[in-house]
Amino acid sequence: MNRLAIADVTRADAEDLLRFEVQNRAYFESQINARNPDYYSLQGVSEAIEAAIDDACNDKGYQYLLRNPSGHLIGRVNLRAVQRAHYHSAVLGYRIDQYEAGKGYATEAVRLVVGLAFTRLGLKRIEADARIDNC
């Protein structure tokens, strides 16, 4: 049984996504490269969502939100750098809410997005970048 629901990011998610990103900013920036400070506004997040929708329409990348059964946004998972010629591949990444980390949600998110990648998206290869201390 899934503890998470996965869905494409949409324009309607902007406020919820902004809240998630602002609440986890320091945590994420302690783990990975910082986002541009302009991202942390409703306009910045909305522009990022538009770029994600455009990427999906052009088969360049796919961004998904992860919600628990009550609908609370607890993470995001994405497939970027989609390559169709020869490889049919993408690079996987994810962010899990700092208070939900260590509960197996990343493992479940990866399982869900890989399932989508190999079925709906027709990909054949998924690569993941990982920090050496997160293996």
Automatic annotation (TrEMBL):
Keywords, alphabetical: Acyltransferase, Transferase
- The domain of life is Bacteria
Q: Gene3D superfamilies from the entry?
A: 3.40.630.30
Residue ranges constituting the N-acetyltransferase domain according to the UniProt record: 3-134
Q: Which InterPro entries match?
A: Acyl_CoA_acyltransferase, GNAT_dom, N-acetyltransferase
The entry's family comment says: Belongs to the acetyltransferase family. RimJ subfamily.
Its protein name is: N-acetyltransferase domain-containing protein
